[in-house]
Write a structure and sequence with these properties.
Five copies of one chain form a homopentamer. With 303 residues, the first copy, chain A, is mainly α. Chain A has one domain. Chain A is built from eleven helices and no strands. In chain A, helix 2 packs across helix 9 and helix 3 runs parallel beside helix 11.
Chain lengths: 303, 303, 303, 303, 303
């Protein structure tokens, strides 16, 4: 995620990092080349007696804009839902720790539980980004659960199972009545919702045909556009054509970037910073020293 | 579902499988034929003194694009809801198994319950795809419930009833207090929500008149389009006309495909893979060997 | 509701029943007459020195399409919510019966309760369609509650009250602990949600002014359209004008039809079939013979 | 709210009451005057060598239509939410009374509680419409709570507090176990949600700048429109200009009317009728005579 | 927030404060300068043989309007959600106080709890606006919790922890059964939801690339527009160009303002007034004198 809060409107026009320009630069250059070709061929082209007029391109451009608006909505909804799930993760973990602190008194047990909560967040991050999470597991998971979590093919879900186990133990030991147990267990259900929701977003893309149809129509539209513009605009064709192409290509490209909000491109969610924030807050709640807060790097980038 | 994660943008332009091209190819060909007829008849057509201009077609095209955007939204919302329900299925089954494991201790009973959970997923798949699920039921449902499930006209709902029965038995045997029973029963209610939600999507299409109106207007629009384009575009009519028709026909066709997300076309939900995933995860949670993970076939296709 | 699942795209173009054509045929004919008048008067009209151009009609048409898209969204959201409420009805009734079966053992009591559940669905249908439901009440409601239900001005809500009464009785008789009672009572609350939600949709239309504004602008737009098209299109005016009018009028007409999803036009919800389905499923759950399943009539129509 | 269910489409074109015509008539007349001025000045205006063309007005009109669509969505969402909150009010009150009737037996206590429920609805109505509710409070609130409710600056919230008090009393008197108490208390929380939700809608309008921007652009657009239309349309300018202005002004005006759904204009919610309905239904549930049902007045108007 | 309820439509046209005019005035002036340059250079520009036509600008303008509509939706959704969270805060705090009052009897304890609720609201405000909240904490937090709240880097969350602590104490002292404790604890979970939700909105902006793309395209579009309009409009170019630019720039500027609803610009949420309202209501509920109600300042502004 790019963090760039209070910039002057004028300087924003020239921001490079965090825009989608790097991704579409090549296609924009192709469009520029097409425009120059269109300008050069104009005379020969007019003798041919055929001409592309702007009218069908207006119709097509507006139709594509409407469909692109739909796809942006769909991608952004995935991004928003992903962020809400990570928000719910923090909320539920705070609630769980508050509940446990308010009814139990054994400090060591509470700390073990909070370690498992923190491990859950990091492990979910590794699962969503397909990275190796064993270092974080070893650092955080209490010894008595480490073996089964580390050996499981689904360590995040196994952590949840261990928390259920830990909770059942407290109940069997008589430290929790059934009613209190149920109240806490309901929040474990919510953690399960978060995990399942993130998995769903990560594993089920927007139907591939949407991506294909828009990818193709946007590309073909931008490629043919210079030939429709050149009879009226002559030397101004490259300027206008590249401008219109920029509008369409950049939104198509951003929609694709946001479709997988757990990736590591500049507009994706900063999962590392979110996990770091969870760890800081949970440590503070049990009055233990937590890690340093992550700061954006030189490009205002949080990962 | 087509799985095709990190392809280069250029090669995407030529993907065949998973696009809706196979479905609309015939209609696109018809449009091409119409365009060629329009080009051939142009001279005779101009002598007639009547001409279709682009203006009313622009208006109509944009109006149709707006309505098509609405229909795409409606179809995509069904697809998304269906996927969310299957996500909730996995989440709830994991929660149920965690709850049961954390408060009961009889391994055999727990395994029977997990078998019923897995059977519920497969049985729901068969119900939604109208296939014969008896093999899966025989493979999974514990012996004491098999007869009544197999003989029921609604085996999926009957499985839920059996789970309620199993749970009531644990309560009557004194292994669960009423409070713990209620906590687990609440998750059975959520399974019932999932089943009812999927049934609703499968049985109630988008009102048929929407499909009809858009089907007709899109088709008639694409058929008349060449005659409106030909006075300006001459030999370029087929190119532009097929391009515009592709945009409209492909989105209309995809909207129809997504309307029934439980079908087996390339953009529908991969119910087999989802059930397989549920089975693997639930088996792992009780430390039993599960099935192999399904992989996409040669066409990147998961069923 | 029209049921017409896997028809070939070509034959769909000519479907009559279930389309909104019957409703708008008269207005389309008026439009045809207007178009013919416009063609006939063209010469005289051009001498007048005034002409309607297409440009303001394009602007107006697109604006109306945008507002019509908004109204379609609103109507379709009502339709969808109505269907979800009836889905929640089935889900909650199944859950209630499962809960009752799993904690009670008296077969006769359970059957009485299931009768009341079925009666609730039928009674709600009669209330929403303003039909006389006394036959269904007499057929289904257990004798001890029949009198008060039949005499109540709100029989559906009274049935809910009787179920609450029945449940309270089981609790007072010691067959249900308070905790179990609360779990079942929560589902009675959901039945109350369903009833209240359906009532709300039936009693509060979309603000009447929306209907009026779009009704008027669509009608006036379609009436003036031929005069704007005729200078360019000459003899083709009737074709294009009727086509554009069909697009706008049919969507406006369908939006009005869906606004009251409990009516009995072809695109409304098949409440009879839904009630029949509920009765079949609940009967099967307590192993009693249920009614026959309703099938679509000759016009693929479910009521 | 205007109630006008099954009118013929033709007569709807001429409905006056309940349309927004009365609100925009003055602005429409201004537009008519502008159009006539444009027609008169045409000759002089053409000699000036400048002309407003339709093209930039098409662009502007469509852009405004898109933004107006957004604002209509926002206003209608507020209207819908307000109606849902009042629906939830009835649902929750029915559920509360059912719960209380099913577990308590003292008729007098139950009746007092139902009186407070009815008073809650009327008091909320007075609060939302800024009217004096003391008469209704005196008529409905039981004597032992009347003083503190009447003297409170927030009588509606105070009533909720009294219901909590009443419920706590039943619990302390041993008539309700803690579990039953909690089940009923959860529904008091829902009443609190309804009250808070309505307050929020009433106190937080759509950001004022949206209203301003659309108000201004719609008005300026309609004022300049005749000058853009007159070069093509001549004597027909007033007709087309007033028609287009009607479309934009009426939707802008309706959006503003719906923004505050608790007002008393013809398209707002009929709070009196809703309260009256609640009173009838709750009275019927405890077999007491209720008030007469309110009927629409001569203009089909429910307040 | 600007409060300006029942103004006449005519005077609204000239409102200055609360509109976004101050923010975009400079850019509008630039546009005016560009328009004048375009008018002056027209002759020389026409000799050049190139001309920008309106057609590609219509296409571009409508596409930008569609994307701007999307961005407005996203920003407004954040604003609405933020307001709903603050609504839920008040609702939950009222419910908590009602629950506590209905089951506990120690006035001093209840007052301490209500102080913590009020402190929670103020502390959340300070956290969201990055202001120093220590004065409010000292004024409100009971002495026994003040030290740990004041020293915590997350005072708002720490307050929640203290409330959990307070509640656990009541339970351990036998004043609350486990069931009652759970019912109140569930509302503490909702407070946690509110805090987490507000944090999420404050810390995760709409992906920066959306802001950039629209910022750039809107700016470039408005800058080039005069050159496209001038060949047709001549001396009227500045008027029309500034009008169109106003429409686009003001909506883009407002979308940016609403993106951070916790700021202190005129269209943001009045957090001070909301906290003040909460304090008044909670004080009234325990019959204590509360603060004065905040009134809008001279510019109808609530902070």
């Amino acid at each position: 995620m790019i963090v760039r809060p209070h910039q002057h409107w004028f300087f924003r026009l020239f921001v490079w990092h965090g825009s989608v320009l790097p991704d579409i630069l090549f296609r924009l250059s192709l469009n520029l080349v097409m425009s120059v070709i269109a300008v050069i061929c104009l005379q020969w082209y007019e003798q041919l007696g055929v001409r592309l007029t702007t009218a069908p391109f207006s119709l097509l451009g507006i139709a594509i804009a409407i469909f692109l608006g739909f796809r942006n909505n769909a991608s952004y909804a995935r991004y928003t839902e992903a962020r809400q799930l990570w928000g719910a993760l923090l909320i539920t973990q705070r609630s769980l720790l508050r509940q446990v602190k308010s009814v139990l008194s054994d400090e060591a047990e509470i700390q073990q539980f909070s370690q498992m909560l923190i491990a859950f967040a990091w492990s979910m991050k590794h699962q969503l980004r397909h990275t190796d999470g064993r270092d974080d597991l070893r650092r955080l998971v209490p010894a008595r659960y480490l073996a089964q979590v580390e050996n499981s093919p689904q360590p995040t879900n196994r952590l949840l199972l261990c928390m259920g186990d830990w909770l059942g133990e407290q109940r069997r030991a008589g430290r929790l009545s059934d009613v209190l147990y149920s109240g806490i267990d309901a929040n474990l259900n919510r953690l399960s919702d978060v995990l399942g929701g993130c998995d769903r977003i990560a594993n089920t893309p927007i139907p591939f045909a949407y991506t294909l149809i828009l990818h193709r129509t946007v590309y073909l539209f931008c490629s043919l556009l210079p030939f429709a513009l050149v009879p009226d605009l002559h030397y101004l064709t490259p300027l206008v054509s590249v401008f219109i192409s920029y509008t369409f290509l950049s939104l198509e490209s951003l929609a694709e970037e946001l479709e997988d909000p757990f990736g590591s491109s500049p507009n994706d969610l900063p999962l590392n910073a979110l996990c770091n924030g969870i760890e800081i807050i949970l440590c503070e709640m049990i009055d233990r020293p937590g890690p340093e807060k992550m700061r954006p790097d030189g490009n205002c980038m949080l990962t």
